[in-house]
Structures are given as structure tokens and as C-alpha cells.
Fold each of these.
Amino acid sequence: MTTINPFARLLQLLPSDPLRKGAIQVTHADGTATVELAGATGTLRVRNPLGLAEGGGVFIQGLAITGQAPDLPVVTLEL
Amino acid sequence: MATDLIFQGGAPSNERPIDLVFGEVDTTTSAQTGALHITLQQPTFSGSGAYRSNNASRIYAGAAAGWQTAKPLLEEQSAPWAGSTPDFVEAAAPWQPASAQRVDAAAPYQRVQIAHTSAGAPWAASQPLDVAARCVHGPMIGIQAGHSNAWEQAISIGAERTARHQEMLRNGRPLIQHRWQVAHQLAAELISRSNASAKRWMAQRYPWDQARRPPAGKSSTITPLPPISPPCYTPPAQDAVELYFSTQYQPGTDLIFSCKLFDLPAGLVIPYRRVYVAAHTITVTTYPGGATVVLTDINITTDADSYCWSLSATGPVNLMEQLAPSSGAPAQIRISIDGLAWVFAVEKIGRTRQFGQARAQLTGRSTTSALDDPWAVARTWTNTSTINAAQVLEQVLDLSGITPDWSVDDWLIPAGAWSHTGTPLSAARRLAESIGAILHSHPGQPTLQVLRRYPLMPWEWYGNAIAPDVQLPLSAVLRESYERRDAPAYNRAIVSGTTQGVLGIVTRAGTAGDVAAPMVSDPLITAQEAVLQRAQSILGPTGRQALIALDLPVLTGGTLPGVLQLNQLTEIIEPTETWRGLVRGVQVKVSGAKVRQTVTMERNLA
């Protein structure tokens, strides 16, 4: 983001760990799962401490599934 | 046996020679005669003579008069005559016999002595004097004849040599001086501004400059036609009608349409002037008291990521007492610059004392800082029913004395989606952050504004139908600084709610949407309006961009913009280009009677 605010620029430099959404594609025996991110923007292999099953929507933060996520209605827009 | 003869006594003298004869005197010896012949070579005499007189000043003066304008003789500087020694030539100059002074002394003006003769007979007395005077003429001629030997016949040759040498020296000097004078005029032309710019515009707009020689083959017989300028109005398809009004509705029946082709005029304009003169009126008072406050070096700043205007200033040390907080509330001051007013709550005030000098420094923020620490306490908010985002802001600002100014698209927040803990300001900031909006404060009123980060997307800034908010020429800019801020060229944004709301996939129109920005999830993305506004803040600052800071005077009155505001679409007219940018930061500096503003603008170079 283009900003001239020094504090905002500092925040951009700091590492961030945003909350992501996705759906579990495959669960693995080592306690991890392959998750496809929402919007089909890629896949991640993350820890699955809750043991969630395949196919469900999940929240991901810090390369770990933090909980189930509901399926939200999708809107496709153009700017 | 040897015999010693010892003589003693007086020395022999010439007067009395004493002859001592031992033995007999030879009287038979007779005188001998002879001849000696010596042959000597014929003597030869050689000699040379030179007459030097360093009295050639008349020749120089006479020659210098006639040859000063002869330019082509510059080429003769490379002539082989350069080796000859000018001293010799000067010595052989013919005009040396200065004995004419004697002639002047013997001039026939001695007739003045006729005054003597007036007493007596004139003719008798003058004759002897004439004889004496004429005698002078005789030797004078003789002297000239004596000097007119063979050396004086070289007069003409010597005159030519001196003439050439003097030309060569003289030609170099005036030519060098002449060239330097021309260089001064060229420097003066470089200072002028408009000449070069006009030519460039002509070259860019000339449509036929790509003509070339026809290639080999059969040439076309179609004569090119000049391009036809598009009409002012092109009706859309299927009998639809678009109306372009030039002004807003005013009472009456006149409908004033505008031609879509022409640029809409900007609302605020700094016209092109050779000189900008501004006399500023700056007043600082306590608020709401109205007592005068003495401040120097006022500095007022804000930017798109600050919720308020900030003040830093210095003043006399008695400000410590005048602006001290009373009963837990900060003192407020009102700064007016040419009618543009800011109200600040004095946040910190301190002083610095040293020998002979005591200064107070203060910082302040807009009065909306009453929503933040240390004047507001943290609390919690939740919504138990569906509520609008604007209503959330009103709840946050309730009973605070700060009024909301909601300038973004409103959206619905279902029950349970809104939950926050913190100060009221952090709640308002959380709300604005969810859609990427700008949280800002009105400079002079206790109003918290929520502004769109991009009123127009960067690719919509240009066009005839888009009128810039402010238009200013480059001549009004005191200083410009340019900084590139490139960013990835995302063309798709994925914005999602968390437990409620929608998942939005927003693609920039006209692109494939193949470069997606990192996904953003926010609990307040609960409606399509929120998705769109958040996506605007993601896709706006992408691609090739620049931050450009312009130092401008503060010009008020009429259509002059005064201090620029955030989000104003500003058009800068440069000699070679015209570009537009969005105001992202403003800084106003007051130093004495001088007021300057530094406007930082976001420019998209795509």
C-alpha cells in the first residue's frame, strides 16, 4: 500500500500472519492436511490438530488449522 | 790563473762614462749595409653599421587606425611570416631622422625680429639675421643627405613588413572578445521557459510526421484523408440517450449540456502566473476563549493513514501556564491561516531553558483525539441484531461530542458479526479498516470522517468526463520530489468474511484476473458493498506508482484551493505532460509570515 505514514510503513515491514480460509483436500497420516485456499489461489500443507475431515472449510493461521469455517456465498465482481 | 778585478765606488752614469778597455780596440771593423724585402697582403677592412631608434610610436598609431575591421586576415596567422623578427624591421624604419627639430629651431619665423627693424630701416637690419637663419638650412640638408645612404633605401620593404606583423597581432584580439559576447546572449535565452515547450507540443500533435518514402512495389492510389475528429456527442446504441450536464441543477428551465469531448473544468484552480503573491493572516487563539496565543514555527500535518491533524509548534515559555490542562481536559487552540481554521487539543507541552533563552514546545492533535487514550476509556461493543455499519459508528461516537461523517457505501452487518474491545477510536478505526477506508478528522470541527480510499480508481483518473478537483501549473510549485513506489500488479482480490458474510472474488475490469493478491478475511466483510470497497483498497495501489511531494504556496480566495485536502484529484500541468494524482498527505508550515504547504500525491504510472 502506498503510504507516507511512518507507522503504517513500519507495520508493512513487520511479518504478518493473516487469517486465511480454505478447504481440506487431503488429510495425511502425519497429522497434516493439504488445504486449498479460497479462490483457488493455491494449496498449503498445514497441521491439522483438530483432526478435521476432508471437504470441510477451515481457517488457517500460522500454518495450522484453527477451526472449521462455514461455506460462504461467493460473489464475483468487477472493478 | 785567474785574475779578479774588483771595482768599488760610485755607480756608472751616462754623463761620465767610464770605458774599460782590455786589450786592443778593433778599428778595422767597417759598417755593413743590406736590404730587407717584406711582402705584406693587401689590408681589407670590413664593418657594419646599424641605426636603431626606438621611436616608432607614430607608425603603430597610424597603422592601428586603418586595419581594425579587417577580419579575413585571421587566416594569415598561419602564414610563414611569423618567423621574421619584428625588432629589425622597426629598426629599419625610415622615419627615424628626428633632426627636424633643428629645422624648427631654424625656421624662418625669425622674422619676428623685424620688430627691431621697425625702429629703423627694415631692410638693412633684416639681412644679417637672415643670413644667420639660412645657415641652419644648409647643414640640415647635409645631415639628411648623410643619413640617406644605402640603408635608407630599404624604406618600402620595411614598411610592408611592419604592416603585416601588426595585422596579425591585431586580428586575434577583437575576434576573441567578440565570441565571448555572443555566449552571454545564449545563456539568457536558456532561461526562458515557453519557447522549448511550445515546439515539443507541436511535434507531438503533428499527425503526419511518420511519412516515409514509399517502399518498393506498387504504390497505393488512395490519397490519405485527414483524421476526422469525433463528434461531440455519439448516441449510444438502441436509441438510448445520454445527457451530459455541465452544471448542477439550478432553478429555471435551462438545461446546459456539455460536450463530452472537452475537459471538464476543475473546481479549484491555481492559474498560471509569473509571480504569486500572498499576504497571510495568521491568528492563534485559545478555543473557545479567544485569548491570543503566541506561536512560532507552526507545523500542521496529516496523511491518509492518520485519523487526525497533528500540530507541533514553539512559543514563549509562558505557554506552559496559558495552555496547561484544566480539570483533566486539555487546552484547545484555534489556528486560522487566511480563514482556514484548525482546532487542536494541546497534547504535550514542555519547555527548554538555557542562558538567555527559554522556549516552550507543544504538540497537539485534532479534537477527535478525545476518543483515544488518555481521554477515553476502553470498552466493548457487540451487535445483537442486524445493524448498518454507519450505525455502528454512531454507536461508537455516542455521547462523545464527536459527530460522524460517513462518506462510504453502507453495508449490513448481521447479528454477532461486530465485536470489538478498545477505545472508541480503535473501534472506529477497526470499522474503517475492514473496508480499507480512510479515517480522518475535520480540521476545525469535532467530526470524524470515513472516506473512501479511492473515490476513483487510478485507471479512472483520466478522461474528459472526470474533472479534477484541483488544477495547478508547475510554475506554482516551489519544489518537487519524486519517489517511485512500485507494487505488484495484482488484478484480482479475494476478500472473505469469516463466520458470516460472503466470499468475494473481485477482478479488475479488462484484465484476466490471473494475478491474485493475498486473500483477506475480515469478520466485517458481510456484504457485497464491503467486498467491493475492500477490493478497491487492494487493487488501487498496484503496479507502477510514484509518491510526489510538491511544495506549494497557500493561496486563498476565489477558486484558489488554499490548503489541499486528502483525496483531492489534482492535475498538474507541466510543459511536457499533464498528470493527475490523489492527495495522500498535507503538511502546512508557518515560519514568521511565510506559509508553505507540502502536498504528497499518489500518482499511478500505468
Note: Chain B touches chain A at residues 303-306, 457, 485, 487, 492, 494, 496-509, 516, 518-521, 528, 531-532, 535-537, 539, 541, 545, 547, 584-585, 600, 602 (CB under 8 Å).
Amino acid sequence: MDGNPPPEGRGDAAESTSSGPGRSPEEHFGPLALRRMTKPDGRSLIAYRRVDLAAPGAAGERGRSGA
Amino acid sequence: MSELRFNELRGEEVAYAIHRQDRTFLPDRAHCPLDPTRPGAPQTEIPLPSFEIVVFDNRFPAFEAPEGAAEVVVYTDDHEGSFGALAAERAEALMWVWRHRYAELGAREDVDYVYIFENRGVEVGVTLHHPHGQIYGYPFLPQVAALERAADERLGGCAPCELLARERAAGTRVLFENGAVIGYVPEAARWPYEAHLAMLSHRRSLLDCEPEELRLLAEALQRLIRGYDALFARPMPYVMAVHQAPTAGGIGSQQGHLHVEFYPPLRTAEKLKFLAGSELGAGMFIGDVLPEDAAEHLRDAIGRAG
């Protein structure tokens, strides 16, 4: 069983890309922006929101290659 | 912390998570723990006034670090929503969330298999109605995943690739294709209206998919679920199981073929398919509906649902 190799550019990893005054760092993954939180009992929570890849400053897929 | 014990007669692991006995059980509408936290109201599991998609550690985990993971994936802050009713863009975003979780959990040394799933309906044991799914990071290869790898060995290659080719050739059980995904009722379906969605191209996991394939996977999932709801003119209960390559030894080190299996327990609008003597005691399913007939009914329902 030979699987096809993943096409170019796959295998992305989350990348921290931005933070602002008073804001926790926001990461990007594909078309998602995500913010990590820790709940009072220590459990983790991630809030995801879709970002407009066409919008100026949106990381989106560019975050994967570091472009 | 759960305890794992190995059942020698069946050759399978059994997890004991006795703390789950006290988990939240069908709370009333005003006390849904998956709703956003409204200003001035008691805090829910999600300390945000609104959200798109949220993933958090299960409060009542079957697995937890350093021996696996159990997460909850909340699809929307709309309590009355469902996977099928999500906006197309939200469903597509959910595919990326799944992909992100596969990447992060699969990279952990204590996670050998990332299993994304949804239980829908009290008929399959749902305890919270708010639209959500779950992710288990198993610290071992669970039995079904091992059986799929054994099928690869038996067929001398990727079993889902072989099976979807057979279904395309037969045609009688195919529900639809959308350019990236095929939907079909398996030739030997175990549940009356079981259906599978498989990537047409060999993709080991969500990480192997092009963005357009993720969009089309979301489209296929919603098309099938809406068809299920149209089948008996009621929300169809189901278990949705996302199968991908194991991650033991590192992501990309093992084979698999991304596909999604649906096990709806209804055989008519009012009658459940129960697992009884033959299914539980002998491991053999006895069907009430021929897969070819189920496929015809589902095609009609999918057409009606639009």
C-alpha cells in the first residue's frame, strides 16, 4: 500500500503571528485565527474564528510558509 | 484518571473512567454548559459572550495527559443549531479545526490515534443537546483502527481505495460524488442506513488534503446529514466517526485513508436497530434493510433535502 505523497505545502503547523497591547497572542492556522485560554481549573480552551484570507494583514495560509 | 485493562478473551482494551458517572446529563435549556457565558449570567464551560468554534478539554475525560486526550468541539454558539444547519463557511472552518487538532494531538507522544467523532441524539447516548463533537486521543491503537489496517493487509493495499473503486464500479450503492468525496452505503453495511464518505484521492489524514478538498468534505458531510434528516422527516440520530491514519511514531509515519463513517441506529422513523444477542454475543450484525435499498432511499432523501 503506497499512499501518494502529500502535495506541496501540506503538513502545516500552527504559528504564532500577532499580539497587541493587552491581548493574548493570536495564532493562525490555515484560514483560522485561534486564541488559547486556560480555564480556572487548569483545562485548556481554544477559540477559533475564521479570517478573511483576502483581508489586508490576514495570515491564513501564508502563516504556514512564513511568507 | 482512567484505568485501562486488557480484555484477553476479546483482545481489546477497556477503559474505566468512573468519574464520568457524574457527568452533566441532559441539563435544561437554561443551564447548557456549552452555551456562551452571557454578561451577568453564571459562567458556562466557555467564558466568552459569543464564539464561532471552541475546543476545550473535556471536564469528564475518558483519557487525559500524559495518557491521551479527550476534547469537546463546540460547532457554534447557537444552542438550537446542528452540523447540517451550519453555514457552509462554518462547516468548512470546522474541517480546519479538526485538521488543527489532528496535527497538535497527533504530535504528542502519548497519542497513538486521533479520533474525531460526533454522537447525535439521545438514541446514541447524547447528554448535551448543544451542537458539538468530541475528539479522543487514544494512547494505543483502538480495535477498529487496527481492523482497518488488517483490511489493508488482506487486500494488499489501501482498503478504502479498493472499496470505493468497487462501489464506483457497482454504482448501485453510491449516493453522490462532489469532485473530492464519494458517499456510499457499504456493500456489507452493519447499520440499516450506514453510509461512508471517503476521499476520492488517497489522503491519509486531513493534513494531506488541499483546501478545496476540505471545503468539499464539509459540503459532503452537510449534504449527507441533511439527507438523513429528510429520510424520516426528523433529526436523524447517528454516530459520526472520522477515520484517519494512526499517529503512533509520528504524523505521516503510518498509512490510512481519510473517510467518515455514519452509524444511524434507526431502521424506520420510530424503530431502533438494537445490538442484541447475535451482534453482542457473536459479533455478527443481522440487517433489516438491504444496502442497495438503503442507498435508494437515501438518494431520494438527499434529493428532497436539496
Note: Chain A is about 5% helix and 35% strand.
